[in-house]
Amino acid sequence: MERPAGVSARRSPSLPDYNVSTSTLAFDQHFTTTPKGILLLAEIVCGMLVWILVGGTDYFHMSALCWVMFVAVLFWILTVCLFIIYLTGLHIRMPQIPWTTLSLCLNCSATVLYLVTATVDALSVNQAIRGRHNYNCWAASAFFAFLSTVCYAGSSYLSYHVWKTTEEEQ
C-alpha cells in the first residue's frame, strides 16, 4: 500500500482549540553552582546525616532525640522539595506563589529550629556511654546539626537579600 506523498493535517472546525502545552519541566544545570544551590545541597546532605545518625540508634527511648528526628526529617523533606522546585524551574512557572517570601520563612524557621535541635542533640550526648555506638552517632549528629544550622543561616541571609531587593522594586 502506498501512502499519499502529502498528507495535510487540518483541524476540524467543530473541535474547540485548547491551549495545551506538552513541554516538560526545564532542568537548570547551573543552579547547583550558585550559592543558593550549593547551600541547598549542603542542607540536604547535612540534614540527611543528622537523621541517619540518630535513626541508627535507640533514639526513641529519649523524647529529646525524637524531637531531633522530627525537625531533621521535616526540614530535610521540605528542603529536598524546594531544591527540586528551583532545579526544575517550577518557581518560574508558578509566579502566583511568593517564592522569595516562602524561601525566607522556611530558611529562618529552619535556622531557629535547627539551632534548638542541635543544642538538644549535643546535650543528649551526655546520656550515652562514651565510646559506644550511641555516643559516637549522637556526637556526630550534633556536629552535623550545628553545620545544618550554619547552612540554613546562610540561606536565610541570601533569601533576605533577594526578598529585600524584590520589595524595593515594587
TrEMBL record:
Membrane-protein topology: Multi-pass membrane protein
Cellular component GO terms, alphabetical: membrane
Domain (MARVEL): residue spans on this chain: 31-164
Subcellular location: Membrane
Residue intervals passing through the bilayer: 37-54, 66-87, 99-123, 135-155
A Pfam family per the record: MARVEL
Keyword Transmembrane helix: yes
Key words of the record: Membrane, Transmembrane, Transmembrane helix
GO biological process: myelination
Domain of life, source organism: Eukaryota
The keyword Transmembrane helix is assigned to this record: yes
Primary localization: membrane
Protein name: CKLF-like MARVEL transmembrane domain-containing protein 8b
Species assigned in the record: Parambassis ranga
Underlying gene: cmtm8b
